[in-house]
Batch of 2 targets.
Target 1
Amino acid sequence: MNRRFFIGALGAATTSLCMGGGQPGKPRYVFLMIGDGMGVAQREVAERYARMKYPARKGGLAMNQLPVKALTTTSEIEGKVTDSAAAGTALACGAKTVNGALGVGADLTTPLRSVAFDAKDAGMKVGIVTSVPIDHATPAAFYAQVPKRSMYYEIGEFLVKSEFDYFAGETMLGRKKAKDKVPQDTLVKDAGYTHVRDRAGFDRLKKGAVKVLVEHDLGYAIEGKPSISLADYTRKGIELMMGDAGFFMMVEGGKIDWSGHANDLATNIHETLAFDEAVAVVLEFCKKHPAESVLVVTADHETGGLELAGNAPKKMVAALDRQEYQSAHYDTQVKQWKKGGAVAPEVAFDRLVDAFGFAPLENDARTRLKDAVAASLADDATDERSLEIQKMYGKKNAAVVSCLHELADRAGAKWTSFGHTDTRVSTTAVGRWADRFAGENDNTDIGKHLRELITKG
Ligand SMILES: [Zn+2]
């Protein structure tokens, strides 16, 4: 028997023994963890990278080791490719809606009920955690009811009215829209929330703290360890809400989606790994409380149409590790080079080849990248060729996307879209009640199962 498989099989057997199974009652600790835009290929490519890069860890990703496995469909109510609002609503409320809508039905008015409120009514504590703004679509699906996901200020009002116990994420987008309205800080304070915005305040939060809102930017994992990580947010949530009442906690890795839209593979992998660190924290907790906890890890949809053609893992890691920043950093650079013709196309080309470690670059790839750099640095609509190239890359920076595609190719992967796709996502679970998430299901089933667990067991 292959050693790796043996370890995996043993792990699963041990886990299901520990979890008991078949006993009556409701779970005390319920975790739903959502990798935004994290399709099957995203989980797989991060797994391969982790196994090669961190051989000491042996098992790859924590989320891929959970014994119960499923494939989950994600389309919105009319069968279209979903956005994060409709998919978040499906997971949170167990019901389909149209894209853009949060916590309301397809008529944009009928309120839908999130399982987080069921948990609150059942006397449990509730935590909502994310690596993106806390009023962004996925987290908001668990506490807001608005026809449009961009209604950030109103989403903030729902947040403070929710009475949920722990919110942690990046700075609220609603702050930008609060000009002629009651400032968000006032809303938060008046609702009695302890509002924390830095590491020192975060460290001062201790068990028993009630109604906490942490707003602090995490940045991108590829650019180095943030002052507070998603795993830290998750660990703190457990610490604050631990107790007889139990809790429901939703944790989202939100920038897996953003880097998928950018077709930025290295950043995508690092974001998946940062999310998986949070999964590992929860898994460790579940192993300590096997008879009382359930953990479900899923995604709201796939982003980027990522395909894995495969490459030698060593080559893959070497290619990916050349990239030091997330894509927007390079976008900004190229924009600066363009200003007033500050940097000639040949120089820009050499700098990008150097930054991504592309030398030597074979002929086709060289031509592709040279054309893309020329198009990115040209004044708008100068010649037909650059127009054509710009069209190819949509609104993206042609030079940067061309580099990111070359890097993905060297890593054995290929992006086929800048948007969301309709492919099924992987769902894994562990815990006494995890079996009901097994097999093939729809994202609404996850919400329905969670509701049943929380209300009836
Ligand atoms: Zn997206």
Target 2
Amino acid sequence: MTLRNEPLTAVFDPRLFRENSQTAVAQLESHLADLSIRGLELTDPLVLSEAARALMTTEHQSIARFDEKKLAAIIELYVRTGIQVHSPGYMGRQFSGTVPLAGVIDFVGSVVNQPSSFYEAGQLPSVAERIMADELNRFIGWEPGRFAMVTTSGGSLANLTALLAARNRAFPGIWARGETGGETGGPRPAIAVSEDVHYSVTRAAGVLGVGEARIVRLPVNRRRQIRADRAREAIAAAEARGLKVFCVVASAGTTPVGAFDPVDELADVAAEAGAWLHVDGAHGASLLVSDRLRRKLRGIDKADSLTWDAHKMMFVPAPCTLLFYRHAHEAIGAFRQRASYVFDEEPDAYHDFDGGDKNLECTKRPMIMPLWTLWAMYGRALFAEKIEYLCHLTEEAHRIVAAEPDFETPHSPEANILCFRYRPGGVEDEHVHHLQLQIRNQVRGGGRFFISKVDLDGVAALRVVFMNHQTTGEHFRMLVDEIRRIGAHLLTKRSGR
Ligand SMILES: Cc1ncc(COP(=O)(O)O)c(C=O)c1O
């Protein structure tokens, strides 16, 4: 017996699929062609919910008839209410306007649906993962065939997974016993991180039961990089308190200012302490593909693991994270489980390409495909040239804002992140923080530019992240003018109170 259901068959009609795709493609084409300066149209969630609900069918008994106009309206709402990542006004966060071709491949992936944790479920994605790992490892420098790479849905998950592998290496009994070292009388697990480490690392420590009290904070220098000389002392002091620092985490591109910790020196510090060195390169590992910028990660070949978000500086759709391990067997060390429905008792040539035993996720998107396709079609230079332009633009922006007497620049940029404050003479210390927050919100509310903010030493700063090669120094000057206009207005209002 076959299921004869006309409305159901219509939903799967390949011709309808083509028409729907054409509708979406036409709308996206005009979206990409619009180079006007715009940031975010911030919408009241209640208003947006109402608009979204108005697009929902009221038919609940049978499959609703397809309405092409409604599809166009959904796409229009989706595109319009997003941060305008393809506009030169977008300078705010670490995800990018993707290379459009990456979106095309993602779209194919969504239709053919090949989840990539196991070879049999995603053959090409599994092979593409291996190829991309080899390609990118040329810039890391580990021994071919001896290292491993798994994809994870985001840098946060990669950091957690790497810390888990590190913890299991230092405390092999915990996975089975489920207890911390301290409870059996030995030293208690701890990690050492910079002041500016991303919150996903300290969150991962919490998830692993390390606990905030056992996070050793390593001091940073004026450029906000970990001071390797002081790291030794801090780790020794922690060990004297009965802790065992099993992992030192260096950031290659910190989230607040894009600073690069000294990986080379920290690798020596970690080795002396018998600790794992994890490099959180979620933001900055992509600089490895540039001949000019690779030196920022000097010593990366000495790390034990590396988080690399391709959805940041490789300009592909989120999420797409690559977690590299210097020694392939450590990747399996993160998880020690058996599950007859997926893990084969008799491993064969295909099993070697499975990633499920090295990964928290079971079903996950074949996220490598957009990255591999761009790499296959355009090669390394696409990424290197865009990254070099963005870093260059950031230096130019720094010069622009440093020359303005009513602005202050608390750091020199190392990558594509720049922080600064609007602070004309006469603004007292206690007002600086709040002034930046107000400016940031008003810039966002204005809808022309999208920027972010971050606290540096407890005081808010305005933060731009250049992710769009269509943004120029001129656009940045316009942003500076807008900030000055908003800031001056806020100060006038305050003095008039
Ligand atoms: C340095 C760093 N690590 C980790 C993360 C988390 O990555 P994800 O957002 O992909 O989970 C970020 C995100 O901004 C980051 O900047």
